[in-house]
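Sequence, please.
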């Protein structure tokens, strides 16, 4: 049985990661911005026989991350998934940049994963894995415009976590960066390529096999290396 912590677990891919990890008998700390409004997650936890517990954590807020991590106790963490994300402005205007929107993306998807990693670091050790959700939009190969805050933040997340991977390598802690696929969640809508179930199952397989030799790498959900 592994012990797993997942941010943004109320919906989407993170919810499905929680469900599938519990299904195989893992202990899951499901971290959600608003547990009271996370009805599906609470129902999943209630039916999990104690394997899933729900805890409040807004990854954009220092105090919330500290209290959320503390609320999960002191158990060693085998896998930490940094999943929480927002789309931000899809078609930003150069003559009217919404800086609040930009800052929110930075707080949630760039500083957020580092806050969360830092809060759980005392409970990570050799063999632990920290899997960070980037996107194909954060790669130099993405051939479209728009989504500047999202793309910039995901690119920065990958570069930052690659550095963190070097810094944690001697402690045997794996730090991974992934693109989870184009997934039919609230974020990408029903026309996307794969389901959250398919994405989460593939990511769990990928995480299981992620060795320290591959720390700091950027992978697609399906195990192919992603271009930076
Ligand atoms: N879906 C895709 O095609 C796709 C593609 C590439 C990358 N990704 C990345 O994969 C991750 C998951 O995406 P998804 O499609 O599952 O998204 P989603 O269905 O929109 O779910 C986003 C989750 O993040 C949570 N969240 C947002 N802000 C938060 C905060 N400040 N603190 C804690 N939780 C917060 C949301 O909680 P609330 O319910 O409280 O809002 C929700 O549970 C994201 O990082 C996304 O950028 C997704």
């Amino acid at each position: 049985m592994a012990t797993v912590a997942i941010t943004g677990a109320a919906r989407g891919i993170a919810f499905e990661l929680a469900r599938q990890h519990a299904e195989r008998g893992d202990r899951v700390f499901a971290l959600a911005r608003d547990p009271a409004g996370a009805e599906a997650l609470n129902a999943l936890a209630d039916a999990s026989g104690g394997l899933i517990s729900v805890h409040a954590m807004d990854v954009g807020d220092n105090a919330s991350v500290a209290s959320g991590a503390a609320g999960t106790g002191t158990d060693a963490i085998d896998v930490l998934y940094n999943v929480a994300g927002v789309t931000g402005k899809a078609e930003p205007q150069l003559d009217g940049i919404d800086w609040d929107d930009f800052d929110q993306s930075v707080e949630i998807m760039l500083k957020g994963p580092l806050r969360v990693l830092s809060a759980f670091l005392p409970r990570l050790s050799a063999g632990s894995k920290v899997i960070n959700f980037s996107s194909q939009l954060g790669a130099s190969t993405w051939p479209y415009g728009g989504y500047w805050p999202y793309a910039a933040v995901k690119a920065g997340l990958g570069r930052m976590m690659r550095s963190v991977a070097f810094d944690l390598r001697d402690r045997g802690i794996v730090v991974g960066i992934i693109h989870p696929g184009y997934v039919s969640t609230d974020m990408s809508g029903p026309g996307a390529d794969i389901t959250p179930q398919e994405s989460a199952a593939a990511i769990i397989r990928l995480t299981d096999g992620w060795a320290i030799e591959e720390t700091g790498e950027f992978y697609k959900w399906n195990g192919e290396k992603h271009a930076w």
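The mean pLDDT is 97.
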